[in-house]
């Protein structure tokens, strides 16, 4: 996660906010993959 924090630091985002945002993105993308796998 530290690497993501470094990237977000460059984007002027706080590390904590970055992790929360990444979690949402990863979670939504996993849901999309899961829903596609069901069909």
Structure description:
With 39 residues, the protein is mainly alpha-helical. The protein has one domain. The chain is built from 2 helices and no strands. It has helices at residues 2-10, 15-38. α1 (2-10) crosses α2 (15-38).
Query: Which structural class do you get from the secondary structure elements?
Result: mainly alpha
Number of domains: 1
Helix content range of the residues, please? over 70%
Per DSSP, the total helix count is 2
Q: Let me know the largest β-sheet.
A: none
Helix-strand blueprint:
Blueprint: H1 2-10, H2 15-38
Helix pairs in contact: 1-2
Brief digest:
The protein has helices at residues 2-10, 15-38. The protein is mostly helical.
Features:
single chain; 39 residues; mainly alpha; 85% helix; 0% strand
């Amino acid at each position: 996660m530290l690497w993501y924090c470094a990237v977000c630091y460059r984007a002027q985002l706080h590390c904590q906010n970055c992790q929360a945002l990444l979690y949402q993105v990863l979670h939504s993308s996993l849901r999309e993959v899961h829903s596609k796998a069901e069909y």
